[in-house]
Specification:
Elements lengths: L3 E5 L10 H8 L4 E3 L10 H6 L10 H13 L6 E5 L1 H11 L5 E5 L12 H11 L8 E2 L3 H7 L6 H11 L3 E2 L1 H7 L19 E6 L7 H10 L7 E6 L12 H16 L3
Parallel strand pairs: 1-2, 1-3, 3-4, 4-7, 7-8
Antiparallel strand pairs: 5-6
Length: 264
C-alpha cells in the first residue's frame, strides 16, 4: 500500500492549513508532503507583506503542472488529498493517471459541474468585481473570509483563523474556473475508467463550494467504472480542514483510502 500522502492546499492558504492533518497522518505511520503553490514558499508574514509579483500571473494549469512534477518525482504513486482548488487539482491529477488514490475535500468544480447558488456567488463576488482581478494578486478581507469560510465559528475564532492562515492569492484561477465552459483548463474526463479511486466530500453549510456542487461533481462520474464515492459532513463549512471536528474528516478520508488500496 502507498505510504506517502501529498496534501494540496487551495487559494488564500499555504501548507500551514494542513498542519493538523499532517500530524494526524504522520501519527498513523504515513510520510506526508504538503508542498506550497509556486511562489508561495516563504514565511506567511513575508507573503502578506510582499507577495511575489509572479503570483499575479499564476493560473490553474501552472498550479496543476507544479504538483504533477512533484508527484511524478516520488518513488511510488502517493495518496492525493486536496482542499478547494487543491481538490480540483487532485481530480485533474487522477485523470492524468497519477496517484494511488484521491480525496477531494470541498472541491472547486471541474468544467461542466453545476450547483452554484446565491451564497456561492456572494462568496466569490469580491474577487470577480475587483478591477483587472484576473491579472492581479488579491487579498481576502476578514469580512469575506468570515462569510465564505468560517461563519459557524465564534467571532474571535474567525478573526484568529484569518490572522493565522490567510495570505494573498492570484485572481486568475477564480476567473478561469468561472469561465471554464469556454476552455479546457479545468476539464476532467469523467468517463475515465482507468483512474484511481476518488472520494469527494462536502460540508453541509459550506458557502464557498455548496454541497450541491460537490454532489453534482460526484454524479458526473457515475457510470465511469472507476471507484467514486461521496460523503457530506453535517455542520461543516469551507474551513472543514481546520474547523472543530476536523479529526472526523481526516479519519474518514484515510480509512476510506485504506479500504480501497489496503493497509501496509
Amino acid at each position: 500500500m502507498a505510504r506517502q500522502i501529498v496534501l494540496i492546499h487551495g487559494a488564500w492558504m499555504t501548507p500551514l492549513c494542513w498542519d493538523s492533518f499532517q500530524e494526524f497522518y504522520e501519527q498513523r505511520g504515513y510520510s506526508v508532503l504538503a508542498p506550497p503553490w509556486p511562489y508561495d514558499d516563504r514565511p506567511i508574514d513575508e507573503l502578506r507583506r510582499s507577495p511575489d509579483p509572479r503570483l499575479a500571473r499564476l493560473g490553474i494549469a501552472q498550479i496543476v503542472d507544479h504538483y504533477d512534477a512533484i508527484v511524478r518525482a516520488l518513488p511510488e504513486p502517493p495518496i492525493l488529498i486536496g482542499h478547494s482548488f487543491g481538490a480540483l487539482t487532485v481530480q485533474i491529477l487522477l485523470d492524468r493517471g497519477l496517484g494511488a488514490c484521491g480525496v477531494a475535500i470541498d472541491s472547486a468544480p471541474p468544467k461542466g459541474v453545476g450547483g452554484a447558488n446565491f451564497e456561492a456567488a456572494r462568496a466569490l463576488l469580491p474577487v470577480l468585481i475587483t478591477p483587472f482581478g484576473w491579472r492581479r494578486t488579491l487579498r481576502m478581507s476578514f469580512k469575506h473570509f468570515a462569510y465564505g469560510w468560517v461563519h459557524p465559528l465564534p467571532p474571535d475564532e474567525q478573526r484568529k483563523a484569518w490572522e493565522t492562515y490567510v495570505v494573498p492569492s492570484p485572481g486568475r484561477p477564480f476567473f478561469q474556473n468561472v469561465l471554464s465552459f469556454a476552455t479546457g483548463i479545468t476539464k476532467v474526463n469523467f468517463a475515465n475508467s482507468e483512474r484511481a479511486p476518488l472520494l469527494l466530500t462536502a460540508g453541509s453549510v459550506d458557502r464557498s463550494i455548496p454541497p450541491g456542487m460537490n454532489r453534482n461533481n460526484f454524479e458526473k462520474y457515475q457510470g465511469s467504472g472507476a471507484v467514486t464515492e461521496f460523503r457530506e459532513f453535517p455542520g461543516r463549512s469551507h474551513w472543514v480542514i481546520k474547523q472543530p471536528g476536523w479529526e472526523e474528516v481526516a479519519g474518514y478520508a484515510i480509512e476510506w483510502v485504506e479500504r480501497q488500496i489496503g493497509k501496509a
